[in-house]
Amino acid sequence: MPEVRRSPWMNALILKLGKFNSLMIAALVIIDQLTKYLIRSSMYIGETREVLPFFQLTYLTNTGVAFSMFQGRNLFFVFFALAVFAGFILWFRKHHAQVSAYLKFAFSLIIAGAAGNFIDRVFLGSVVDFLDFYVNDLHWPAFNVADSCISAGAAMVFLGFITNKKKGVL
Description:
The protein is globular and about 45 Å long. By secondary structure, it is an alpha+beta fold. The protein has a four-stranded antiparallel beta sheet with strand order 1-2-3-4. The mean pLDDT is 86. Helix 2 runs parallel beside helix 4, helix 3 packs antiparallel against helix 4 and helix 4 (101-124) runs antiparallel to helix 5 (145-165). The protein is 59% helix and 14% strand.
């Protein structure tokens, strides 16, 4: 098996996040990309397949951000994601010792989701969305596995900062 070479910043990030979180990031990105590939290869854009009375698969593309806001700004969001990731790396390198395992897990979810959508933006020019929940004619905006990771991680960070603010811990 050929040796995998990683940059020093990637090695530092893996050590500081921990092996479990690093493997989780990789697994979630693979799951995200695999599900999007399956949708792209078996459906056409705009196609819908009902799965349950409140859930369907709907193949959509999104050049904006959450809930399809700011459509047509894919290149901006590619560079924005790079800037945010670089900022996070710099911040995390300095503060990782004070960050709880809970928040490292939450940050790992956000990183996995951001990476999954970043891959779509760079290689496809838009993000693939397909999970479509609804009640009657009221639909939640379609989303994907990466979006779920970002949302769950952001909620965990928010709760973590609220509960730990009183303790003076990140």
